[in-house]
């Protein structure tokens, strides 16, 4: 198919040379002018309408060869971000998850990344995770993906030392992972000011999240909202020329009957969990409300897994944090493509 500029050149050539050919046939001047005029009008209309017919033919061909939604590679990457949490659960014999088979999710081509794929994606990256026990469980899910069982068994006791930070470097892949114990929001704000220096290197991925300790010890949702807003302001004050990929680890579904102390059952209620969720939304720290952090919705994922996935009503089986990790990794794939483009 010829582009419109080439069509114009072709039309001009026809208008110039066809009358010369007609003159060679010894036609009368009147007939030459008549044929030239008709030819000019026809070509003028054809050149101006051709792009529309080409577009229509392109759409018809697309409808024939792509009758279903186009594959992920043909979609703007950001259009797939809202579908990352479209998860389906099965519970027989054990809880397991997969991305929903609906058309928009299927067209995005999400993958459950294996060890080699995740190693390539994260190669040379510094991953900083700060928060409470939920954040520690996300780090465990990451280590389970990146390490072989023998290596994992040797590092897991250090990861779960009570109320402590944790650091590991996977030298052969250049991956550095830092977990910083930050059970209160103020702890996260302080570490952003202390650990993220205005000189390279900067973390490539940051996961932040807290709230369980605040809910247990303060029980004041407005105060929690103010503290989360402080985290948002600290993020915006970072002087990194390129902000890291940033995620917010949401609070889990709470199963009151399984909470293991009277204080937890009294204070960590569904109503308070809802109030804390509203405060996070009000701060606009999350990407969907214009903020800098993408939500990893542990509440949604843990609700899908169900009460059988938790022993203490607040910490869930590894399958929940694996789902959150895979959502994060697929978001990194999407955002990395956007930055390249």
UniProtKB/TrEMBL annotation:
Keyword tags: Membrane, Transmembrane, Transmembrane helix
Subcellular location: Membrane
Positions of transmembrane segments: 6-25, 32-54
One CC-aspect GO term: Golgi apparatus
Organism domain of life: Eukaryota
Annotated GO biological process: xylan biosynthetic process
GO molecular function ontology, one term from the record: acetyltransferase activity
Protein name: PC-Esterase
